Amino acid sequence: MMTTAAPASLGDQLQQAIDGLPPDQISLDALLDQVGPQGLLLLTALLTLVFLIPVSIPGVSTVFGAGILLVGVSRLLRRPLWLPTRLRQRQLPADKLRNALGRGMVWVARLQKVSRPHRLPVLVDSRIAETLNDAALVLGAVLLMAPFGFVPFSNTIPGLALLLLAIGLMQRDGVAVLLGHLLNGASIVYFGMLIGGGGLAVREVWDRIVG
Q: What 3-state class would DSSP assign to 47?
């Protein structure tokens, strides 16, 4: 009697993509080819990993952040993914990227332990929920690209939001999706506090100068 093999987990799929990286250079176009045109959520999860650890690889944050944003836009507009040629073909160091992605996999392992398929289906199955969730992907990408990279947790919080949204949408897990929305909200509050605190500091300095 033949048995059907269980589908590969998200962690296994991501690890396969990481293991398949070439030894020297990699482009976003090549990453897209690895996950396939139907794997946009998998691509989102993969691109998010580098934002979850302290890493500095020239060009990666710009290319990956823009890639996540355009994936979200394509899903929101229900159109095929479009990437500018310059973005698709930008060459990145595969060896450094492989190491960074591998370190980010610890977050996937943690989140997979708490994610369960088909929980709170109302948050993932309706057309309205789908639109709101795709808009949340766009919002998360915008927050991820905000110019606060030097501030602790400024990448981690929206990065976790995006990873939870991607995992939740892939597994139809409304709880994971809800947590992704909440972390998007937490990112907005955190950035608001940074902007407000910075404004107060500038005002205080100004008052001392002119006072």
A: helix
Instruction: Count structural domains, the chain.
Output: 1
Judged against a pLDDT cut of 70, whether residue 207 lies above it is answered with no
Q: What average pLDDT score do residues 59-66 get? A: 81
Is residue 1 included in any domain, yes or no? Answer: no
pTM above 0.70, yes or no: yes
- Identify whether 53 is part of a domain: yes
The answer to whether position 143 is within a domain reads: yes
91: domain range?
A: 10-210
Neighbours of 122 (CB within 10 A): 9
Contact 176, 164 (CB under 8 A): yes
Cα 3 from Cα 55, distance rounded (Å): 43
Under 8 Å between Cβ of 104 and 176: no
